[in-house]
Amino acid sequence: MTNEQTLLQVRDLRVSFRLDKHNTFEAVKGISFDVPTHRIVALVGESGSGKSVSAMSILGLLPENAGIPAASQVLYGGEDLLKAPEARLRDIRGKDISVIFQEPMTSLNPVFPVGEQIGEVLRLHMGMTPKAAAARAVELLAEVGIPEPQLRARSFPHELSGGQQQRVMIAMAIACEPKLLIADEPTTALDVTIQKQILDLLAKLQEKHHMSVLFITHDLGVVGEIADHVVVMQNGLVQEQGPVRDIFERPQHPYTKALLECRPRLDRRPMRLPVIDDFMKGTGAANYAERPRGVKEGDAAILEVKNLNKTFFLKEGLFGKRAVPAVKDVNFRLAKGKTLGLVGESGSGKTTVGLTLMRLHDATGGEVLFEGRDLLALSDREMMAYRRRIQIIFQNPYASLNPRFTVGNILTEPMKIHGIGKDQKERVEMAFHLLSRVGLPESAFYKYPHEFSGGQRQRIAIARCLTMKPDVLICDESVSALDVSVQAQVLNLLQDLQDEYGLSYIFISHDLAVVKYISDEIMVMNQGEIVEIANADEIYLNPRQEYTRKLLASIPKGWDATRAAA
After folding, report:
1. Do 446 and 507 sit in the same domain of this protein?
2. 2, 140, 424, 507 — which has fewest CB within 10 A?
């Protein structure tokens, strides 16, 4: 970065949080990096690495219990923003330096139309009249690719899709043509197609407006597509930084190598994914043999779905109803001991299929044959015996575990309800065994969910499913919220369990690289219908439908050597 003009300099930044009267936690431990003019710098690391804390320090957006020593500096045009008064920071925020936050629904005001919210920024920082601000808001919505911007300017946030909400946030952030745009995990919760659109949009806007961008993410695959420079953080420290080409082609630090290797690749499928510890202990990525995948014609089916339909009815007017078909005549077989990947964009119906199989939604029509019996025709009492044999792991491990129960309660209660284990002592022993099986110590039995990380909570959720000794596990976006390294650990665990117990999986995800790694067969859905279904390798090598090709083209490919050198 030495030959480029520098817009922002971060020097020896340290951030501590006061936990109580006697204890503090140092989240950022003396990091330094530059953001050059007209460049995109990616700040990369796992959850807890300190990347978002570092970025929020720039504009003084940290909570009151945060402390930054006097020696730390954030220099913007020669001015130390850490020493700037609040009035000066208010003037800079939104005008010179803007932020796109990770979750647009918590950042947009639900009671104002989006056009008004963009207009407020223009009136405050640019001194525009309400009429001029409203007209400019429509222009900005058009610039970020929102269809019918005049109409959408009058829409409330809840009336827009997730991708459109994020586009509104981007429009608001670029409204005053800032010199620096801080994008904090702006694509993490989005489908691959929407993610690609947002990345392309940010790159186009950065070039058009000659902005600098500080792009925060945990996914190096995304970084390779958009960034000029990369800063890799771990545990509050910068482990490595440099041009994107150097980071991808010649990574120096073991942690950087681990982040690059943990994510499933499209060109191979090792028996196990490497994890962070493999690199930090110096063993590196093991040269695992390829894992064979696929379903043969003679493979026995454990689950057969015929003409499955699900329609939701929404209230319209005072007495009216409107039918919304979510699943339309879906047919598939789940082979015993195999994994069926279920992919598609948000709203494609893939999660509705999973919940309807579990009878957590009532099907509108069709059959779900489990070992020959139609689950949809069973009484609630008859279904109880099957509920333990088909289990589901939900997407959000923070919401799916009861915060008032200890892990011991979470594991033993389902066993008690379904009569598993002759007494409490035997159930506790089984719980200890399951904790060990998912890589957690026995001491976890006595703790509460809030005492664990996201990856550990997902392991607890998997252990809870295993208490039922199921035959089928439905994994509903169960690794989507996890860092790539933790994701690799959970995928390895799921594969180990399948090898050991012969479990059959329905693996629902919008992450196509993960789906290819773990699936034998893949079913692609769009607007409630099956677009195509085939063995995993065949889908990726020879997609038959245009929709499938569009999904595959949206997968982040990481660093492309054809890109100009940074």
Report:
1. yes
2. 2
